[in-house]
Design brief:
Blueprint: E1 5-12, E2 15-28, E3 33-37, E4 43-45, H1 51-54, H2 56-59, H3 63-66, H4 71-77, H5 85-97, H6 118-131, H7 144-157, E5 163-166, E6 172-177, H8 178-189, H9 196-211, H10 213-216, E7 219-220, E8 223-224, E9 229-234, E10 238-243, E11 248-254, H11 259-272, H12 278-285, E12 291-293, E13 299-305
Antiparallel strand pairs: 1-2, 1-13, 2-3, 2-11, 4-6, 5-6, 7-8, 9-10, 10-11, 12-13
Helix pairs in contact: 4-5, 4-6, 4-9, 5-6, 7-8, 11-12
């Protein structure tokens, strides 16, 4: 039985203090494995990594055009945003175009509009408005909007059936092998073989995420992922991405749910496979500190990829 491998060491005083185990899979658009670490058959919940693929459901319906949705607004539908004023205003703009208020959001019991999934929820509400689906139970797994979303997820990730659980924001989250997640992102980044309507929708989503990283939560100090890729993290140590023009998608999972370790392993994989401009990628990666400091501000250790 193949097991998770050591992905990241936490080193303090020259000694290993903690080991983060996990698995990484890189595949092409047909699902052929091109690189792997650990358990290639590992299944997990995609959590928020699924958001850009979920957004296809609304982007390919014509709803964006019907409601006059901007590129910035499409970006936040794909986002795990920080709940800042710019994010709240953008979600409110979407809801206003739908003729709704923030009371329609069901992602949190209190202050739902600042919940980091309010953009995704506004996208689901848009899907409901476009198809005249009921709004009051849109989080229900059997709601027609959720059934549509799972169908798109299955098609993009090339699985027969999408298993699901309930995410932190109340809607279904998708359980599948890492290799299937990677297929979905490979096709998201390389939509040439998709049907015309889906290809157009995917192209809009990637362009929106790249044009407005301030909406997606994937920006730090003015820096974001290199333009050769589209990537999205998820809760409990999940990270997925696709490389434009290379027909490659990657999914990484940290078994202990540590998001920093997973992001480090994900980025290191891309660097080792030489899939993008490594200088640009390193510049971005360096903004996520892998050094360990104490409360006096002294550097006392580091996190290091070891696979």
């Amino acid at each position: 039985m193949v097991r998770a491998e050591e992905l990241v060491h936490v080193i303090r005083g020259g000694h290993i203090d903690l080991i983060h185990y996990g698995s990484i899979v890189a595949v092409d658009t047909e699902g052929k494995i091109v690189y792997s670490v650990g358990d290639v058959d590992r299944s997990a919940f995609m959590r928020s990594s699924a958001k850009p693929i979920q957004a296809i459901t609304v982007a390919e319906t014509g709803a964006l055009e019907k409601f006059g949705i901007s590129q910035k607004e499409l970006a936040i539908i794909c986002a795990s945003h920080a709940g800042q004023d710019i994010h709240v205003e953008t979600v409110r703009d979407i809801l206003s175009k739908l003729g709704l208020t923030e009371d329609a959001l069901q992602c949190s019991k209190s202050n739902a509009i600042r919940d980091n999934c309010s953009g995704k929820h506004s996208g689901i509400l848009m899907l409901c408005k476009f198809h005249d689906f009921p709004l009051d139970n849109y989080t229900d797994p059997h709601h027609p909007a959720q059934v549509m979303i799972r169908k798109v997820m299955a098609e993009m990730c090339k699985v027969d059936k999408v298993e699901y659980g309930i995410d932190g924001c109340g809607v279904p989250t998708f359980y599948m092998p890492l290799s299937s997640m990677a297929v979905g992102f490979a096709r998201l980044a390389n939509p040439e073989d998709l049907p015309p309507k889906r290809k157009e929708a995917v192209t809009k989503i990637v362009a929106a995420m790249q044009a407005h990283p301030e909406m997606t939560g994937e920006i730090r100090d003015g820096k974001t992922w290199p333009k050769q890729m589209v990537a999205k993290g998820g809760a409990l140590g999940m990270y997925c991405g696709g490389i434009l023009g290379k027909k490659v998608g990657i999914a990484a999972k940290s078994d202990d749910g540590n998001s920093t370790a997973c992001a480090l392993a994900f980025t290191e994989t891309i660097k080792r496979l030489e899939l993008v401009d490594n200088e640009e990628l390193t510049e971005y990666q360096n903004l996520r500190s892998t050094t360990i400091t104490n409360r006096r501000g002294e550097v006392v250790g580091e996190m290091k990829a070891v696979f």
